[in-house]
Amino acid sequence: MSTSSSSSSSSSSTGASAAAGGVTVPPASLTRSAVRRTSSLNSVIVHDLRLKLGSRDVKRPVLNGVDLQVRRGSLHMLLGPNGCGKSTLLKVLGGLLVPDSGLIDADQPSGFVFQNPDHQVVMPTVAADVAFGLGRYELTEEEVAAAVRSSLRLVNMEDFMYRATHTLSGGQRQRVAIAGALAEDPKLLLLDELTTFLDREDQFGVLGAVKNITSQRKDVTAIWVTHRFEELQFADAASYMENGRVVFTGTPDEAKAYMRKLGAPV
After folding, report:
1. DSSP label at residue 194
2. φ, ψ for residue 54 (rounded to 5)?
3. What is the C-alpha to C-alpha distance for residues 219 and 226, in angstroms, rounded to an integer?
4. pLDDT higher for 107 or 22?
5. Residue 154 in contact with residue 179, Cβ under 8 Å?
6. What is the pLDDT of residues 171-206, one digit of tens each?
7. What tens digit of pLDDT does each residue of 82-133 get?
8. Residues in domain ABC transporter (predicted)?
9. Ordered strands of the 59-71 beta sheet
10. Per-residue pLDDT averaged across 199-225, rounded?
11. CA dist., res. 261 & res. 240, Å (int)
12. What is the dihedral of CA 195, 197, 245, 56, to 10 degrees?
C-alpha cells in the first residue's frame, strides 16, 4: 500500500502553487498525460524553498532557502542531524506539505514510502498489499497481476507474492511497501529513513532493492533520507542538510570527507 501524488509545480514559484496538495494520478502506463518531466537532466530542481511550521501564532522556520538538484535515474541520499529539515523537504516534494515560497520542478508522479512499514503494509498477503493502490484504476485482473509481479521482482520479493504479510521480517515488509509504490509507476521515489528499525541484514537488503530499481529503471529517481553514514556506499550522490538548508552536495566520497571535517565518525 503506497502514497502516490502528482505535483502541480511546473517551474512555478512562491505561495501555495509551488507544490501539490497530494493529488493522486493514474500510473504512466494508463495515462501518459499524468507523467511530466523537468526540462533538464535533473529529476528534481529546488530553489530557495522556505517553510515555517507550528501554530498560527508561533511558527518556526524549518526550511530556510533550500537549493537542490537531483539527477534523473540516480539514488540521491539526504543526510544531516535531527531537525535539519530532511523529512520535511521530502514531504514537500511529495505534495504532503505546501511550502511558503520557492521553486520546485520535479518529475511526476511520485511515490512516498514512510519510515515504519506497519503504516503502509496493511493487507493480509503480499500480493494484496502491493495491489491495494491499483484498486482505484480501471485495470483488468491480468494488468493488476502483471504490475504486482513486476514490482515485487524489482525489490527481490517475487517469491513472497502469496506470503502472509505478518510473517515477514521488517526489511521484507519495507520492500513490500516500496513495491506498492512502484506498482503505480512513479517517476520519483521518496524514501524517508526506511532502515531506522531494521537490523543490518534487512538494512542492506532494502538498500540493495532500491539501488536495483534505479539501475534497471533509468526513468525512476530515488531520494533517500537517512542518518546512517554506512549507507552512503549505495548512493550515486549525497546532500548534507543543516538548519533547514542544503549546505553540501557531492559524491559519496566527497560527502564522507565533508562530514569528517564536521567531526562525524564516518
Report:
1. T
2. 140, -165
3. 23
4. 107
5. yes
6. 999 999 999 999 998 999 999 999 988 888 999 999
7. 999 999 999 999 999 999 999 999 999 999 998 888 888 989 999 999 999 8
8. 44-266
9. 12-13, 101-106, 42-54, 59-71
10. 92
11. 13
12. 140
- Is 16's pLDDT higher than 80? no
Residue 105 to residue 188: CA distance in whole angstroms: 12
> Residues near 56 by Cβ (< 8 Å), separated by ≥ 6?
none
pTM of the model: 0.83
What are the sequence ranges of the domains in the chain? 3-261
CB atoms within 10 A of CB 154: 22
The amino acid at residue 116 is N
- φ/ψ (deg, to 5) at 20: -80, 165
> Any idea which fold 3-261 has?
Rossmann fold (3.40.50)
> Measuring CA to CA, which residue among 156, 148, 44 is closest to residue 89?
44
Residues 241/90, Cβ–Cβ less than 8 Å: no
Q: What is the mean pLDDT of the chain?
A: 85
Q: What is the pLDDT of residue 1?
A: 60
In the block, cell 505534495 appears at 95
Task: State how far the alpha carbon of 54 is from the alpha carbons of 57, 61, 183, in Å.
Answer: 8, 9, 35
